[in-house]
Design a protein that fits this description.
With 198 residues, this protein is an alpha/beta fold. It contains 9 helices and 7 strands, in the order βαβααββααββαααβα. A 5-stranded parallel sheet has the order 2-5-1-6-7, sandwiched between helices. It is globular, with a radius of gyration of 18 Å.
C-alpha cells in the first residue's frame, strides 16, 4: 500500500480534489472531518476541551468551533495545548483507517497542515493542490464571514504555496477546468497504482 499525502493552502480546491480521488475508488482519510468528529457530540475529548476553554462546548452540540477558534486565535500556547489533546486521538483514527485499507494499492491522506506539522515525512508521495493566488483569494473571500485580515493571518500560519509546490511529488492545478483537474488526479493514481508505480 502506498500513502499519498494530499495538501494545499486554503482556497486551493483540496476538498474538491479529495472528492475526485474518492470518485475514482481511492480511499481518502479526511483529517479535517475527523477533527470535526472528535469535537462532536459524544466525543470523549469534550470534557478535556471544556477544561482548557470553558464555555466552548456543550453535550448536545459538541464544540462550538467559532468560540474555540476565538479562544485560540493568535495564542500559540493555547493552540499548542489544544493540538496536544487532539493529535494523539487523530493519530489513532488514522492508524485504524490504514489498517482497514491495508490491502489497497493506494490510499490518500488529506491533511491540510501536512508540511507544517511534519506529517509529510510519513508519506510515500505528496500531492499539492494549487491555483493562481488571485483565484485563491477570490475563492476564500467569497466564504461567509471571511475577511482579508483573517485570510492574511491564516496564510501566515501556512507554508507558502511556492514552497509546497517545490516540495511536492505531484502538483494538481485547480486553476483550470474541472475536467482538467480530474485528468490530473487520474494521472497521479495511474502513476502510483500501476505496475512499478513509485
Amino acid at each position: 500500500m502506498k500513502t499519498l499525502g494530499l495538501t494545499g493552502s486554503i482556497g486551493m480546491g483540496k476538498s474538491t480534489v479529495a472528492a475526485m480521488f474518492r470518485a475514482e475508488g481511492v480511499p481518502v482519510f479526511d483529517a479535517d472531518a475527523e477533527v470535526h468528529r472528535l469535537q462532536g457530540p459524544g466525543s470523549k475529548l469534550l470534557e478535556a476541551i471544556e477544561a482548557l476553554h470553558p464555555g466552548t462546548t456543550s453535550p448536545e452540540l459538541g464544540v462550538d468551533r467559532a468560540l474555540l477558534r476565538q479562544a485560540v486565535w493568535g495564542d500559540d500556547v493555547a493552540l499548542a495545548r489544544l493540538e496536544r489533546l487532539l493529535y494523539p486521538a487523530l493519530h489513532r483514527v488514522r492508524l485504524t483507517f490504514l489498517s482497514r485499507h491495508r490491502a489497497r494499492r493506494l490510499v490518500v491522506l488529506d491533511v491540510p497542515l501536512l508540511f507544517e506539522k511534519g506529517g509529510w515525512r510519513k508519506m510515500d508521495a505528496i500531492a499539492v493542490v494549487s491555483a493562481p493566488a488571485w483565484i485563491q483569494r477570490r475563492r476564500v473571500l467569497a466564504r461567509p464571514g471571511m475577511t482579508a485580515a483573517r485570510l492574511a493571518h491564516i496564510l501566515s500560519l501556512q507554508t507558502p504555496d511556492p514552497e509546497k509546490r517545490r516540495r511536492a511529488d505531484f502538483v494538481i492545478d485547480t486553476g483550470r477546468s474541472m475536467n482538467a483537474t480530474r485528468e490530473q488526479v487520474r494521472c497521479v493514481i495511474a502513476c502510483l497504482s500501476g505496475p512499478g508505480g513509485r
